Amino acid sequence: MTQFRQFANPAPLGLSAFALTTFVLSLHNGGIGQKFGSPPNVVAGLAFFYGGLCQLLAGMWEFANNNTFGATAFSSFGGFWMSYAVIITPFFGVGDALAAAGGNVKAHAVGIFLLGWVIMTFILFLATLRSNLGLCLLFAFLDITFILLCAGDWTGKGHVTKAGGYFGLFTALIAWYIAASDLIGHHNSFFVLPNPSLAPRSINNNDLEDAKRDEL
């Protein structure tokens, strides 16, 4: 019988990378980071290496674990953070080129960029409706965050962007919670964190037979 190598769960890494990078950027979008004198482009390093590279690697390992949703989500948002880092890093000249175009070109261009992620995130949200409560809430709040940030860029209204920042902070906390619920268990702690399943309780006979075969 062919034996397959068992891989560790890459989801906590991907979720943690997403959470921390989102948390730092959202602090600035919400106007909180500036109060402490922290420059907005401090997120660039996180976007390249933690939110970007680590999430991309987590996505690749989700492919190895035969988890299509996890692979698509982590790899996509790894690419999102890397591409966002390119936009805000002066070396690549993207921000300067957009600013040189004059008017509201830069804000509108970033708004279009975010609109694409509104659509992508909504598709991923639809794929969580029968997974678990944590993932469903994560993508719901993330989509709202993108919508607000997109609207803030297009309208030029700072309070809309700030609202997006606060929703982003809550989204980051949800991602950290899910990561913690995967990491913390009876094998390494005295408690577990609940993350209720949204899957139907009843399964048909074919599903039951498939589950039994998987256990063998």
From TrEMBL:
InterPro entries per the UniProt record, alphabetical: AceTr, Gpr1/Fun34/SatP-like, GPR1_FUN34_YAAH
Membrane is among the record's keywords: yes
Lineage: Eukaryota, Fungi, Fungi incertae sedis, Zoopagomycota, Kickxellomycotina
Protein's UniProt keywords contain Transmembrane: yes
TM annotation in the entry: 12-30, 42-61, 81-100, 107-126, 132-151, 163-180
Keywords tagged on the record: Membrane, Transmembrane, Transmembrane helix
Compartments it resides in: Membrane
GO molecular function, one term: acetate transmembrane transporter activity
Protein's name according to its UniProt entry: Uncharacterized protein
